[in-house]
Give the backbone structure.
Amino acid sequence: MRESVDILISGGGVAGLAAAAGFGAAGYSVVIVDPAPPITEGTALGADLRTTAFLQPSLPVLRDTGLWTRLEPHAMPLQVMRIVDAGGAEPEARIVHDFNAADVSEQPFGWNLPNWLLRREFVAHLASLPNVDFRPGTGTKALFTRESEALVTLSDGAQLRARLVIGADGRNSKVRKALGIGVSTTRYGQKALAFAVTHPEPHGNVSTEIHRSGGPFTLVPLPDHQGKPCSAVIWMETGPEIERLRDLPPEAFTDAMNTRSCGLYGRLELATTLTVWPIISQIAERWTGQRCALMAEAAHVVPPIGAQGLNMSLADLTTLLELATPETLGTPEMLQAYERRRALEVKLRQVGVDALNRASMLESRPLRDLRAGALNALYSVAPVRRGLMQLGIGMR
Ligand SMILES: Cc1cc2nc3c(=O)[nH]c(=O)nc-3n(C[C@H](O)[C@H](O)[C@H](O)COP(=O)(O)OP(=O)(O)OC[C@H]3O[C@@H](n4cnc5c(N)ncnc54)[C@H](O)[C@@H]3O)c2cc1C
């Protein structure tokens, strides 16, 4: 016999777990499935060592879902975004510009948290919601839709009827493929290393992006680790260079990262292992199908510049929650309104992140000099500077 639920969420990554908390708090019956049980310890093999900087517009949905009270004690505020150009002959900081959140807001730009910790807190929160049923170890296997409902077969053989299926199952989304929705993908030949470091000088709640070639080297503040100031690092480079760096002996790797960080915050020491992430930009050709909505990386992937990825995913969730009522859940009207409100906004942000990434990848010295000049010019005009900051955090 088929079980009936309001919403089936395919994918228990950070976005799917947040969606389950959101729709659970709104009173809907939710089943959420993921074939890979979440790893909730930072030291466990396979832990997601990336961090997420939640920008200001993501806070209301985290508060409404009840997640923020769990996250706040672990969150590190980001007050200043420091952009450093180190594109000269030697790897040295030649231009340093600070963008201070105080210029546009009484609050910080955002709050940074490790992804493994997000999974731990989100899973614990879902366990307190009687109308949410999280089934780790079970995936979506097949999907059939008709006007009134979606029929989902799970990998354990269970069959469910849902008024709405949310595809939050990542960049290779099973739901998206089952709906026959294509994607447009840009490959940059880049990868990213994600890890954490300690350093002798305090970070002072400054997030620092250092540009030379191959992509940015970004330090994002974390709480102290073993009594020392600590930051998360995302180091983007060409794929072969990332693999060479990953395979270096630990001392040689530490020397290489200190050359690349230009000595900012003193000598960096590794505080975690290294994880490697491919960098692409991708967008789904459609965001919805009958009784189905795609969200997060199932719909859009961007390079990790400016902390846009998961923040756009929480904006998807906010929109779905605003449009859903017990009457409209999963109807064509609701789904069309969702696609209208999200697709263009995400496309525009994706174009902006793509341009920033290409500028950061530049190899040739003259072009790197031009990049440094453009940064100086943008920074020196106060209204432009403030406008860029507001745009970056999604205040407009
Ligand atoms: C290096 C790096 C740094 C980043 N930093 C930031 C940042 O600072 N700020 C920010 O906003 N964003 C950031 N991002 C982006 C952010 O990490 C991603 O947007 C986010 O983690 C993706 O979440 P997701 O839930 O969409 O996808 P995923 O985490 O990929 O989750 C998808 C889930 O679906 C599951 N799944 C797969 N197949 C099935 C199936 N058949 N049935 C059910 N489930 C299935 C998978 O097991 C997986 O758990 C960064 C990205 C990278 C690469």
Remarks:
- The pocket of flavin-adenine dinucleotide is lined by residues 10-16, 33-36, 50-53, 139-140, 168-170, 174, 192, 194, 234, 277, 296-297, 304, 307-311, 313 (CB under 6 Å).
- The longest strand covers residues 183-198.
